[in-house]
Amino acid sequence: MKNRDVYESPLSARYAGKEMKYLFSPDKKFRTWRRLWVALAEAEHELGLPVTKAQVEELRACQDNVNYEVAEAREKEVRHDVMSHVYAYGQQCPGAAGIIHLGATSCYVGDNTDIIIMTEALALIRNKLVAVLRVLAKFAEEYRALPTLAFTHFQPAQPTTVGKRAALWMQDLLMDLEDVEHQLAKAKLLGSKGTTGTQASFLELFEGNHQKVKELDQKIAEKLGYEACFPVSGQTYSRKLDSQMLAVLSGIAQSAAKFSNDIRLLQHLKEVEEPFEKGQIGSSAMAYKRNPMRTERMASLARYVMVDALNPAFTMAGQWFERTLDDSANKRLSVPEAFLAVDGILTLYANVADGLVVYPKVIEQRLRKELPFMATENIMMDAVKRGGDRQQLHEAIRVHSMEAGRVVKEQGGENDLLQRIAADPIFGVGMEELEGILQPEKYVGRAPEQTMDFLQEVVAPVLEKYKDVEAGEAEVTV
Asked: Which letter, b or e, does each residue of 224-257 get, where b requires 16 or more Cβ atoms within 10 Å of its Cβ?
Protein backbone atom coordinates (compact mmCIF):
# COMPACT_ATOMS: atom_id res chain seq x y z
CA MET A 1 0.00 0.00 0.00
CA LYS A 2 1.31 3.46 -0.86
CA ASN A 3 2.38 5.93 1.81
CA ARG A 4 -0.01 8.77 1.12
CA ASP A 5 1.45 11.09 3.75
CA VAL A 6 5.05 11.09 2.47
CA TYR A 7 6.40 12.88 -0.61
CA GLU A 8 7.45 10.57 -3.42
CA SER A 9 9.23 11.75 -6.55
CA PRO A 10 6.93 11.50 -9.59
CA LEU A 11 9.94 10.19 -11.51
CA SER A 12 9.79 7.05 -9.39
CA ALA A 13 6.03 6.84 -8.90
CA ARG A 14 4.90 7.77 -12.39
CA TYR A 15 7.50 8.09 -15.13
CA ALA A 16 10.61 5.92 -14.92
CA GLY A 17 10.75 2.19 -15.61
CA LYS A 18 11.42 -0.57 -13.10
CA GLU A 19 14.90 -1.40 -14.37
CA MET A 20 16.15 2.18 -14.18
CA LYS A 21 14.63 2.69 -10.75
CA TYR A 22 16.46 -0.37 -9.47
CA LEU A 23 19.81 0.90 -10.73
CA PHE A 24 19.52 3.92 -8.44
CA SER A 25 18.05 2.01 -5.51
CA PRO A 26 19.77 1.53 -2.13
CA ASP A 27 19.92 -2.23 -2.74
CA LYS A 28 21.87 -1.78 -5.98
CA LYS A 29 24.22 0.65 -4.25
CA PHE A 30 25.00 -1.51 -1.25
CA ARG A 31 25.37 -4.71 -3.27
CA THR A 32 27.85 -2.84 -5.48
CA TRP A 33 29.75 -1.69 -2.40
CA ARG A 34 30.19 -5.33 -1.50
CA ARG A 35 31.33 -6.23 -5.01
CA LEU A 36 33.98 -3.55 -4.66
CA TRP A 37 35.09 -4.83 -1.27
CA VAL A 38 35.43 -8.35 -2.67
CA ALA A 39 37.41 -7.03 -5.65
CA LEU A 40 39.71 -5.06 -3.35
CA ALA A 41 40.34 -8.01 -1.04
CA GLU A 42 40.91 -10.39 -3.95
CA ALA A 43 43.34 -8.00 -5.65
CA GLU A 44 45.22 -7.45 -2.39
CA HIS A 45 45.44 -11.23 -1.91
CA GLU A 46 46.80 -11.71 -5.42
CA LEU A 47 49.40 -9.01 -4.86
CA GLY A 48 50.71 -10.60 -1.68
CA LEU A 49 49.10 -8.66 1.15
CA PRO A 50 48.03 -10.64 4.25
CA VAL A 51 44.58 -11.37 2.86
CA THR A 52 43.81 -15.08 2.50
CA LYS A 53 41.84 -16.85 -0.18
CA ALA A 54 39.51 -18.12 2.53
CA GLN A 55 38.75 -14.55 3.61
CA VAL A 56 37.99 -13.56 0.02
CA GLU A 57 35.66 -16.54 -0.39
CA GLU A 58 33.93 -15.74 2.90
CA LEU A 59 33.26 -12.20 1.64
CA ARG A 60 32.03 -13.48 -1.71
CA ALA A 61 29.62 -15.93 -0.05
CA CYS A 62 27.80 -13.08 1.73
CA GLN A 63 28.17 -10.52 -1.03
CA ASP A 64 24.49 -10.40 -2.02
CA ASN A 65 22.99 -11.08 1.39
CA VAL A 66 23.07 -7.57 2.83
CA ASN A 67 22.04 -7.47 6.50
CA TYR A 68 20.39 -4.07 6.35
CA GLU A 69 19.01 -4.12 9.88
CA VAL A 70 22.50 -4.42 11.37
CA ALA A 71 23.89 -1.67 9.13
CA GLU A 72 21.02 0.71 9.91
CA ALA A 73 21.30 0.13 13.66
CA ARG A 74 25.05 0.68 13.54
CA GLU A 75 24.66 3.90 11.53
CA LYS A 76 22.49 5.38 14.28
CA GLU A 77 25.47 4.94 16.61
CA VAL A 78 28.42 5.96 14.44
CA ARG A 79 26.71 8.32 11.96
CA HIS A 80 28.77 6.97 9.04
CA ASP A 81 27.14 4.92 6.28
CA VAL A 82 30.29 3.28 4.89
CA MET A 83 31.68 2.19 8.26
CA SER A 84 28.23 0.95 9.27
CA HIS A 85 28.18 -1.36 6.26
CA VAL A 86 31.77 -2.44 6.87
CA TYR A 87 30.67 -3.42 10.36
CA ALA A 88 27.56 -5.22 9.13
CA TYR A 89 29.55 -7.13 6.51
CA GLY A 90 32.06 -8.10 9.19
CA GLN A 91 29.29 -9.48 11.37
CA GLN A 92 28.41 -11.89 8.57
CA CYS A 93 32.05 -12.64 7.74
CA PRO A 94 33.91 -12.73 11.09
CA GLY A 95 36.95 -14.39 9.56
CA ALA A 96 37.34 -11.54 7.07
CA ALA A 97 36.14 -8.65 9.24
CA GLY A 98 39.64 -7.33 9.78
CA ILE A 99 40.54 -6.95 6.11
CA ILE A 100 37.32 -5.42 4.72
CA HIS A 101 38.04 -1.99 3.19
CA LEU A 102 41.78 -2.44 3.83
CA GLY A 103 43.65 0.74 2.87
CA ALA A 104 40.59 2.38 1.33
CA THR A 105 38.62 5.53 2.01
CA SER A 106 34.86 5.97 1.74
CA CYS A 107 35.10 7.23 -1.83
CA TYR A 108 36.48 3.85 -2.85
CA VAL A 109 33.01 2.37 -2.56
CA GLY A 110 30.99 5.57 -2.96
CA ASP A 111 32.56 6.97 -6.10
CA ASN A 112 33.29 3.69 -7.86
CA THR A 113 29.69 2.68 -7.25
CA ASP A 114 28.40 5.96 -8.68
CA ILE A 115 30.44 5.38 -11.84
CA ILE A 116 29.25 1.77 -12.17
CA ILE A 117 25.60 2.75 -11.76
CA MET A 118 25.81 5.69 -14.19
CA THR A 119 27.53 3.47 -16.76
CA GLU A 120 24.90 0.75 -16.47
CA ALA A 121 22.15 3.36 -16.60
CA LEU A 122 23.64 4.89 -19.74
CA ALA A 123 23.77 1.43 -21.35
CA LEU A 124 20.05 1.08 -20.59
CA ILE A 125 19.42 4.49 -22.16
CA ARG A 126 21.34 3.31 -25.24
CA ASN A 127 19.06 0.29 -25.54
CA LYS A 128 15.98 2.47 -25.33
CA LEU A 129 17.36 4.81 -28.00
CA VAL A 130 17.80 1.81 -30.28
CA ALA A 131 14.20 0.74 -29.59
CA VAL A 132 12.92 4.17 -30.65
CA LEU A 133 15.04 4.10 -33.80
CA ARG A 134 13.59 0.71 -34.77
CA VAL A 135 10.05 2.02 -34.55
CA LEU A 136 10.80 5.26 -36.39
CA ALA A 137 12.62 3.36 -39.15
CA LYS A 138 9.45 1.40 -39.93
CA PHE A 139 7.39 4.56 -39.90
CA ALA A 140 9.83 6.43 -42.15
CA GLU A 141 9.89 3.63 -44.71
CA GLU A 142 6.10 3.27 -44.76
CA TYR A 143 5.56 6.98 -45.39
CA ARG A 144 8.74 7.74 -47.33
CA ALA A 145 6.80 8.91 -50.43
CA LEU A 146 3.71 10.49 -48.87
CA PRO A 147 3.89 14.20 -49.83
CA THR A 148 3.16 16.67 -47.07
CA LEU A 149 3.41 20.41 -46.70
CA ALA A 150 6.74 21.41 -45.17
CA PHE A 151 7.11 24.46 -42.98
CA THR A 152 9.79 27.02 -42.34
CA HIS A 153 8.95 29.48 -39.56
CA PHE A 154 5.71 27.42 -39.39
CA GLN A 155 4.80 29.05 -42.69
CA PRO A 156 3.98 26.88 -45.73
CA ALA A 157 7.12 25.96 -47.67
CA GLN A 158 8.17 23.56 -50.42
CA PRO A 159 6.67 20.09 -49.82
CA THR A 160 8.54 17.19 -48.24
CA THR A 161 7.31 13.71 -47.29
CA VAL A 162 6.08 12.35 -43.98
CA GLY A 163 8.85 9.76 -44.03
CA LYS A 164 11.55 12.36 -44.66
CA ARG A 165 10.36 14.29 -41.63
CA ALA A 166 10.72 11.13 -39.54
CA ALA A 167 14.26 10.76 -40.90
CA LEU A 168 15.07 14.16 -39.38
CA TRP A 169 13.90 12.93 -35.97
CA MET A 170 16.02 9.82 -36.38
CA GLN A 171 19.13 11.75 -37.35
CA ASP A 172 18.96 13.67 -34.07
CA LEU A 173 18.70 10.41 -32.13
CA LEU A 174 21.62 8.90 -34.02
CA MET A 175 23.75 11.87 -32.98
CA ASP A 176 22.67 11.21 -29.40
CA LEU A 177 23.53 7.54 -29.77
CA GLU A 178 27.02 8.48 -30.92
CA ASP A 179 27.45 10.59 -27.79
CA VAL A 180 26.20 7.75 -25.60
CA GLU A 181 28.63 5.30 -27.18
CA HIS A 182 31.51 7.74 -26.85
CA GLN A 183 30.78 8.16 -23.16
CA LEU A 184 30.49 4.40 -22.61
CA ALA A 185 33.67 3.71 -24.57
CA LYS A 186 35.78 5.85 -22.26
CA ALA A 187 34.29 4.64 -18.98
CA LYS A 188 36.84 4.35 -16.19
CA LEU A 189 36.63 3.62 -12.48
CA LEU A 190 38.13 5.80 -9.75
CA GLY A 191 40.03 2.79 -8.44
CA SER A 192 41.79 2.84 -5.06
CA LYS A 193 43.29 6.30 -4.72
CA GLY A 194 43.12 7.05 -0.99
CA THR A 195 42.21 10.18 0.92
CA THR A 196 43.75 12.78 -1.39
CA GLY A 197 44.37 10.66 -4.45
CA THR A 198 48.05 9.96 -3.71
CA GLN A 199 47.55 6.25 -2.84
CA ALA A 200 49.76 6.81 0.21
CA SER A 201 47.96 4.21 2.33
CA PHE A 202 48.39 1.54 -0.35
CA LEU A 203 52.04 2.46 -0.88
CA GLU A 204 52.55 1.85 2.84
CA LEU A 205 50.69 -1.47 2.71
CA PHE A 206 52.90 -2.60 -0.18
CA GLU A 207 56.03 -1.34 1.60
CA GLY A 208 56.95 1.20 -1.03
CA ASN A 209 56.32 -1.00 -4.08
CA HIS A 210 54.91 1.47 -6.58
CA GLN A 211 54.34 -1.19 -9.24
CA LYS A 212 52.04 -3.20 -7.00
CA VAL A 213 50.03 -0.09 -6.14
CA LYS A 214 49.52 0.51 -9.87
CA GLU A 215 48.60 -3.15 -10.41
CA LEU A 216 46.03 -2.91 -7.62
CA ASP A 217 44.08 -0.26 -9.56
CA GLN A 218 44.25 -2.29 -12.77
CA LYS A 219 43.08 -5.49 -11.08
CA ILE A 220 40.15 -3.75 -9.43
CA ALA A 221 39.10 -2.27 -12.78
CA GLU A 222 39.25 -5.64 -14.54
CA LYS A 223 37.35 -7.44 -11.80
CA LEU A 224 34.52 -4.94 -12.16
CA GLY A 225 34.49 -5.22 -15.96
CA TYR A 226 36.39 -2.02 -16.80
CA GLU A 227 39.58 -1.58 -18.76
CA ALA A 228 41.17 1.07 -16.58
CA CYS A 229 40.90 3.56 -13.75
CA PHE A 230 41.40 7.31 -13.91
CA PRO A 231 45.19 7.79 -13.88
CA VAL A 232 44.99 10.67 -11.41
CA SER A 233 42.36 11.98 -9.02
CA GLY A 234 41.82 13.80 -5.79
CA GLN A 235 39.80 11.92 -3.20
CA THR A 236 36.97 11.68 -5.73
CA TYR A 237 36.77 11.11 -9.44
CA SER A 238 36.54 14.39 -11.32
CA ARG A 239 33.00 15.74 -11.20
CA LYS A 240 33.53 16.58 -14.86
CA LEU A 241 32.27 13.03 -15.47
CA ASP A 242 28.85 13.81 -13.97
CA SER A 243 28.65 16.93 -16.10
CA GLN A 244 29.50 14.96 -19.25
CA MET A 245 26.97 12.26 -18.43
CA LEU A 246 24.14 14.73 -17.97
CA ALA A 247 25.18 16.66 -21.07
CA VAL A 248 24.54 13.47 -23.05
CA LEU A 249 21.16 13.06 -21.36
CA SER A 250 20.33 16.69 -22.08
CA GLY A 251 21.05 16.05 -25.76
CA ILE A 252 18.56 13.18 -25.79
CA ALA A 253 16.00 15.39 -24.06
CA GLN A 254 16.51 18.08 -26.70
CA SER A 255 15.88 15.59 -29.52
CA ALA A 256 12.79 14.23 -27.82
CA ALA A 257 11.42 17.71 -27.19
CA LYS A 258 11.82 18.59 -30.88
CA PHE A 259 9.90 15.45 -31.86
CA SER A 260 7.28 16.28 -29.24
CA ASN A 261 6.80 19.80 -30.59
CA ASP A 262 6.45 18.55 -34.17
CA ILE A 263 3.83 15.95 -33.23
CA ARG A 264 1.84 18.42 -31.13
CA LEU A 265 1.76 20.90 -34.03
CA LEU A 266 0.80 18.15 -36.48
CA GLN A 267 -1.96 17.02 -34.13
CA HIS A 268 -3.29 20.59 -34.10
CA LEU A 269 -3.31 20.42 -37.92
CA LYS A 270 -5.08 17.04 -37.70
CA GLU A 271 -2.45 15.47 -39.97
CA VAL A 272 -0.71 13.14 -37.50
CA GLU A 273 -1.80 12.20 -33.98
CA GLU A 274 -0.23 10.45 -31.05
CA PRO A 275 -1.95 7.26 -29.81
CA PHE A 276 -5.30 7.75 -28.06
CA GLU A 277 -6.75 4.83 -26.15
CA LYS A 278 -10.37 3.80 -26.53
CA GLY A 279 -11.43 4.89 -23.06
CA GLN A 280 -9.00 7.79 -22.68
CA ILE A 281 -10.42 11.16 -21.65
CA GLY A 282 -8.85 14.14 -23.38
CA SER A 283 -10.46 16.90 -21.32
CA SER A 284 -12.61 17.01 -18.20
CA ALA A 285 -14.76 19.74 -19.73
CA MET A 286 -14.59 19.22 -23.50
CA ALA A 287 -15.42 15.59 -24.21
CA TYR A 288 -14.57 15.82 -27.91
CA LYS A 289 -10.93 16.76 -27.31
CA ARG A 290 -7.93 14.54 -27.99
CA ASN A 291 -5.14 16.32 -26.17
CA PRO A 292 -1.56 15.24 -27.00
CA MET A 293 -0.90 14.15 -23.42
CA ARG A 294 2.05 11.88 -24.13
CA THR A 295 4.03 14.34 -26.20
CA GLU A 296 3.22 17.14 -23.76
CA ARG A 297 4.68 15.01 -21.00
CA MET A 298 7.77 14.38 -23.12
CA ALA A 299 8.27 18.12 -23.51
CA SER A 300 7.74 18.68 -19.81
CA LEU A 301 10.26 16.04 -18.72
CA ALA A 302 12.74 17.14 -21.39
CA ARG A 303 12.65 20.69 -20.09
CA TYR A 304 13.46 19.38 -16.61
CA VAL A 305 16.45 17.38 -17.85
CA MET A 306 17.89 20.26 -19.87
CA VAL A 307 17.80 22.51 -16.81
CA ASP A 308 18.97 19.74 -14.47
CA ALA A 309 22.10 19.27 -16.59
CA LEU A 310 23.33 22.60 -15.23
CA ASN A 311 23.61 21.11 -11.73
CA PRO A 312 26.72 18.96 -12.28
CA ALA A 313 28.25 21.74 -14.37
CA PHE A 314 28.09 24.11 -11.40
CA THR A 315 29.12 21.33 -9.03
CA MET A 316 32.19 20.56 -11.13
CA ALA A 317 33.13 24.22 -11.33
CA GLY A 318 32.75 24.63 -7.57
CA GLN A 319 35.05 21.82 -6.40
CA TRP A 320 37.94 22.84 -4.14
CA PHE A 321 41.35 21.21 -4.54
CA GLU A 322 41.27 17.45 -3.78
CA ARG A 323 37.64 17.42 -2.65
CA THR A 324 34.79 19.32 -1.01
CA LEU A 325 31.49 17.86 0.15
CA ASP A 326 29.18 20.45 -1.38
CA ASP A 327 28.84 18.06 -4.33
CA SER A 328 27.18 15.27 -2.38
CA ALA A 329 23.61 16.46 -1.78
CA ASN A 330 23.37 17.96 -5.25
CA LYS A 331 24.60 14.91 -7.16
CA ARG A 332 22.38 12.60 -5.11
CA LEU A 333 19.45 14.52 -6.57
CA SER A 334 20.53 15.70 -10.00
CA VAL A 335 22.20 12.58 -11.40
CA PRO A 336 19.56 9.91 -10.61
CA GLU A 337 16.67 12.24 -11.48
CA ALA A 338 18.14 12.99 -14.91
CA PHE A 339 18.49 9.30 -15.73
CA LEU A 340 15.01 8.51 -14.43
CA ALA A 341 13.52 11.38 -16.46
CA VAL A 342 15.24 10.38 -19.71
CA ASP A 343 14.16 6.79 -19.12
CA GLY A 344 10.59 8.04 -18.92
CA ILE A 345 11.05 10.26 -21.99
CA LEU A 346 12.30 7.38 -24.15
CA THR A 347 9.48 5.11 -22.98
CA LEU A 348 7.04 7.80 -24.10
CA TYR A 349 8.94 8.31 -27.36
CA ALA A 350 8.77 4.62 -28.26
CA ASN A 351 5.10 4.42 -27.29
CA VAL A 352 4.13 7.47 -29.35
CA ALA A 353 6.23 6.55 -32.38
CA ASP A 354 4.81 3.04 -32.42
CA GLY A 355 1.23 4.31 -32.41
CA LEU A 356 1.32 7.40 -34.62
CA VAL A 357 -1.88 7.85 -36.60
CA VAL A 358 -1.48 9.46 -40.04
CA TYR A 359 -4.35 11.08 -41.93
CA PRO A 360 -3.33 11.16 -45.64
CA LYS A 361 -6.53 12.88 -46.82
CA VAL A 362 -6.07 15.80 -44.44
CA ILE A 363 -2.41 16.03 -45.42
CA GLU A 364 -3.31 16.06 -49.12
CA GLN A 365 -6.06 18.63 -48.64
CA ARG A 366 -3.78 21.10 -46.89
CA LEU A 367 -1.00 20.54 -49.40
CA ARG A 368 -3.30 21.12 -52.38
CA LYS A 369 -4.50 24.41 -50.91
CA GLU A 370 -0.96 25.73 -50.92
CA LEU A 371 0.39 23.92 -53.98
CA PRO A 372 -0.82 26.45 -56.59
CA PHE A 373 1.52 29.07 -55.10
CA MET A 374 4.44 26.63 -55.14
CA ALA A 375 3.72 25.52 -58.71
CA THR A 376 3.95 29.02 -60.17
CA GLU A 377 7.65 28.65 -61.05
CA ASN A 378 6.88 25.51 -63.09
CA ILE A 379 3.87 27.17 -64.74
CA MET A 380 5.95 30.22 -65.64
CA MET A 381 8.80 28.13 -67.10
CA ASP A 382 6.38 26.12 -69.23
CA ALA A 383 4.92 29.40 -70.57
CA VAL A 384 8.43 30.66 -71.38
CA LYS A 385 9.09 27.47 -73.35
CA ARG A 386 6.00 28.30 -75.41
CA GLY A 387 7.48 31.69 -76.29
CA GLY A 388 6.31 33.88 -73.42
CA ASP A 389 8.30 36.77 -71.90
CA ARG A 390 9.61 35.80 -68.50
CA GLN A 391 9.42 39.30 -67.03
CA GLN A 392 5.82 39.79 -68.13
CA LEU A 393 4.88 36.31 -66.91
CA HIS A 394 6.56 36.93 -63.56
CA GLU A 395 4.60 40.15 -63.06
CA ALA A 396 1.35 38.44 -64.01
CA ILE A 397 2.06 35.61 -61.55
CA ARG A 398 2.82 38.15 -58.82
CA VAL A 399 -0.44 40.04 -59.38
CA HIS A 400 -2.57 36.89 -59.56
CA SER A 401 -0.90 35.45 -56.45
CA MET A 402 -1.53 38.60 -54.42
CA GLU A 403 -5.19 38.64 -55.47
CA ALA A 404 -5.67 34.95 -54.75
CA GLY A 405 -4.01 35.42 -51.34
CA ARG A 406 -6.32 38.34 -50.59
CA VAL A 407 -9.39 36.22 -51.37
CA VAL A 408 -8.17 33.51 -48.98
CA LYS A 409 -7.13 35.81 -46.14
CA GLU A 410 -9.66 38.64 -46.29
CA GLN A 411 -12.74 36.88 -47.64
CA GLY A 412 -12.15 33.35 -46.33
CA GLY A 413 -12.54 32.06 -49.88
CA GLU A 414 -10.82 29.23 -51.72
CA ASN A 415 -7.49 29.62 -53.44
CA ASP A 416 -8.48 30.52 -57.03
CA LEU A 417 -4.96 31.16 -58.36
CA LEU A 418 -5.21 28.38 -60.96
CA GLN A 419 -8.48 29.72 -62.32
CA ARG A 420 -6.94 33.18 -62.65
CA ILE A 421 -3.92 31.80 -64.52
CA ALA A 422 -6.11 29.68 -66.81
CA ALA A 423 -8.21 32.74 -67.64
CA ASP A 424 -5.16 34.88 -68.49
CA PRO A 425 -4.21 34.41 -72.18
CA ILE A 426 -0.59 35.37 -71.49
CA PHE A 427 -0.01 31.86 -70.10
CA GLY A 428 -1.76 29.95 -72.86
CA VAL A 429 -2.73 27.08 -70.57
CA GLY A 430 -6.07 25.55 -69.50
CA MET A 431 -7.29 24.12 -66.20
CA GLU A 432 -6.81 20.51 -67.30
CA GLU A 433 -3.16 21.07 -68.06
CA LEU A 434 -2.70 23.00 -64.80
CA GLU A 435 -4.23 20.16 -62.82
CA GLY A 436 -1.68 17.85 -64.43
CA ILE A 437 1.11 20.12 -63.24
CA LEU A 438 -0.23 20.06 -59.67
CA GLN A 439 0.76 16.51 -58.74
CA PRO A 440 2.18 16.72 -55.18
CA GLU A 441 4.85 14.06 -55.78
CA LYS A 442 6.43 16.34 -58.40
CA TYR A 443 7.35 18.89 -55.75
CA VAL A 444 9.01 16.77 -53.03
CA GLY A 445 12.43 16.72 -54.68
CA ARG A 446 14.53 13.76 -53.54
CA ALA A 447 12.73 13.35 -50.22
CA PRO A 448 11.64 9.71 -50.88
CA GLU A 449 15.08 8.77 -52.18
CA GLN A 450 16.84 10.63 -49.37
CA THR A 451 14.74 8.76 -46.85
CA MET A 452 15.50 5.34 -48.29
CA ASP A 453 19.20 6.13 -48.70
CA PHE A 454 19.30 7.23 -45.09
CA LEU A 455 17.47 4.13 -43.86
CA GLN A 456 19.60 1.71 -45.88
CA GLU A 457 23.01 3.35 -45.63
CA VAL A 458 22.93 4.91 -42.16
CA VAL A 459 20.16 3.44 -40.01
CA ALA A 460 20.28 -0.21 -41.09
CA PRO A 461 23.93 -0.75 -40.04
CA VAL A 462 23.18 0.74 -36.63
CA LEU A 463 20.13 -1.45 -36.11
CA GLU A 464 22.09 -4.50 -37.27
CA LYS A 465 24.80 -3.70 -34.73
CA TYR A 466 22.20 -3.69 -31.97
CA LYS A 467 19.96 -6.45 -33.30
CA ASP A 468 20.20 -8.39 -30.03
CA VAL A 469 19.38 -5.39 -27.85
CA GLU A 470 16.08 -5.59 -26.01
CA ALA A 471 14.46 -2.61 -24.32
CA GLY A 472 11.17 -4.12 -23.13
CA GLU A 473 7.63 -2.87 -23.55
CA ALA A 474 7.05 0.88 -23.85
CA GLU A 475 4.33 1.00 -21.19
CA VAL A 476 3.05 4.43 -20.24
CA THR A 477 1.28 5.39 -17.01
CA VAL A 478 -1.39 7.82 -18.13
From this structure: bebeebbeebbbbbebebbbbbbebbbbbbbbbb
